[in-house]
Amino acid sequence: MDAEEEREKKRVILADDPSNRAMVQRDLHLLPSEILLEILSRLPITSLIHFKTTSHGCYDLIADTRLPPMFRNRVSDSNPCLILFNHNLPVSQQLHFVDIEDCSRRVRKIEPPQHLKIANLVGSCNGLLCLSFPIISHLFVSYGLLIYNPFVGDAVRVPPAVQFFDQFEVFGFGFHPRTGEFKVVRIVYYEKETMVGDPVLDVEELDEGFDTVDESMVQVFTVGTTEWRNKGAPPPELGDEIGPPVALVEGSLHWVTPVGMGGVDPIFGIISFDLAAEVFKEIPHPPCQRLVSDRCNLSVLSGCLSAAIGSGETGHFDMWVMKQYHVKESWVKQFSFDPYLHRGWPVNTSSSLSRLPIIICALKNGEILLQYNKSSLVSYDPVENRFKTLQISRLPNQFQVLPFLPSLFSAKATMNLLF
Fold this sequence. Notes:
Strands 3-2-1-24 form a four-stranded antiparallel sheet, with no helix packed on it. The model is unreliable at 195-207 and 346-354 (pLDDT under 50). By secondary structure, the chain is mainly beta. It is 15% helix and 38% strand. Helix 3 packs parallel to helix 6.
């Protein structure tokens, strides 16, 4: 532990002493509000959460409308928090976070929105989480959506979309910097009942002689409005086995998906959905021989679309970064690394496919944060070619992880809604 970490631990110990807290609260009122807000804006989110529960005066300071933009400007230059999610646990235990700027690096529980029984994590953006939850009727299972700020505690419910029998839904959530709008994208695949050789009929007219045809639809909801808008069918490349989008860059959601066939093997590419134009586009992929879906990991590094592409022959990953969005010539190979070197895992064995790491984000010090086996978090130093397991207290056994910049803006205020 270096000297700065030791000093920080002493500050934490002093802050937890009740007599010290009382003295600090008394002295705070002697300072001008502008200075107080400047001090608060520099505190980690964990300290702010604790601070606002200590007294009514402290709560009022945290609720000051001048603080959220000051805090946002600071966290934009910091390492992100990490949202940890496990959908196999009861909803009260599903959501956690860890602030890697905090020297304690302790996993802390996030309280879910009230009355939520089961949840899935759709995505995160600008300090907000998008959560889906099942709505079960006697006809089908559909999903509702909530936009939630876990540190402020408020949520905005998204209106229900049209439902179909035997449907499969994929959601994406993002923000476009040019339009300033948050949007939810829904891709739904379903079967439509038809009479053989006749136009599509209503499902209530089912009888012998009817058949089913596969249908799909893209819908977009702009947060702050009241209705979903239909955008037609998704491109044929996005089949019904598609997963959720894995990267939000320049206001576009991204998938790795088959875009054609090369003999008997599919050819994979990168498909995006532009949240401003509300259209799908094919993004030029890095200048490598081919993409393989289970060996291409899209992520966002320093605001750029990035792709970690694995070699089936050597086991190495090449880390590519698109320096100028949507410009093929701007792909640059930043470095290569062997993910199996961590803990001495073997190279290029069939069992090792499940051990391929997920690229989470870039850290301020230039290291890359990885997740192995849906559990351990590891930083990789590309200069020293060195791996280091992050020591995090109370880390769950299994979890999904998302980088997350915390916000003090409420979900309703962020979307400029009146409720």
